[in-house]
Amino acid sequence: xxxxxxxxxxxxxxxxxxxxxxxxxxxxxxxxxxxxxxxxxxxxxxxxxxxxxxxxxxxxxxxxxxxxxxxxxxxxxxxxxxxxxxxxxxxxxxxxxxxxxxxxxxxxxxxxxxxxxxxxxxxxxxxxxxxxxxxxxxxxxxxxxxxxxxxxxxxxxxxxxxxxxxxxxxxxxxxxxxxxxxxxxxxxxxxxxxxxxxxxxxxxxxxxxxxxxxxxxxxxxxxxxxxxxxxxxxxxxxxxxxxxxxxxxxxxxxxxxxxxxxxxxxxxxxxxx
Length: 273
Ligand SMILES: Nc1ncnc2c1ncn2[C@@H]1O[C@H](COP(=O)(O)OP(=O)(O)OP(=O)(O)O)[C@@H](O)[C@H]1O
Prior knowledge:
273 residues, alpha/beta, six-stranded mixed sheet, four-stranded antiparallel sheet, 9 helices, 25% strand, disordered N terminus, binds adenosine-5'-triphosphate, ABC transporter ATP-binding protein, transport, hydrolase activity
């Protein structure tokens, strides 16, 4: 059974996961990525291994140059590893053709970028639908799903707005809705709050919290400790290797949420926005 089938069948079976071990959204083994530049070879990833069970919420951290973006590009099927394996269910992306990678990328990976990456000429609903264009099937059902997702992220009253008519936080919410439209294996977020103020950051992190509570798998790259503190787990890279893989306890996650929310309440009280 391919990952797509496995994923869909789990949604159809409400008891799945209750008694059986969780399936993996992805499994990474001895992952290596080398960039060859004329006479020099840069070893951006030097053998990284870890699993991400479905429903996990992973923050990837590490100093500049440690390989975070490289890992994210591989997870997002934007690039292929030099060595090792990256499994999406039964499919190893190292063995896929470029066409297969493009297909899986457009159909089953949800991307959220720091700079939103919305299409300026399109409305909120049309932007949410963009990943569906690659499949060539946008009918009433798909439009209804896009509207539902816009409502889900609090933009039900902005359906026909263009990105320039939205705040940064609203644009990021469109990007989150867009990332979900294909029912992805996981949402991959690259510094999703990097351009946002504290209040808006809290709004976006709360949406990620809710999505994860609903079972969505989230993998995000961040430089911010308070963002990573919201995840279930923090994977730290150093010099292209896995340096640490630590669980955030429920207590510490709750404390991080409370701290950030109080900080935001204080800002709002002071009218500092
Ligand atoms: N396309 C590329 N060609 C050559 N070298 C690259 C390429 N992309 C990344 N590198 C190199 O690979 C290493 C890891 O880079 P990467 O961008 O993955 O790190 P990062 O942890 O995301 O850094 P930052 O936090 O600064 O974004 C760096 O030494 C970088 O210079």
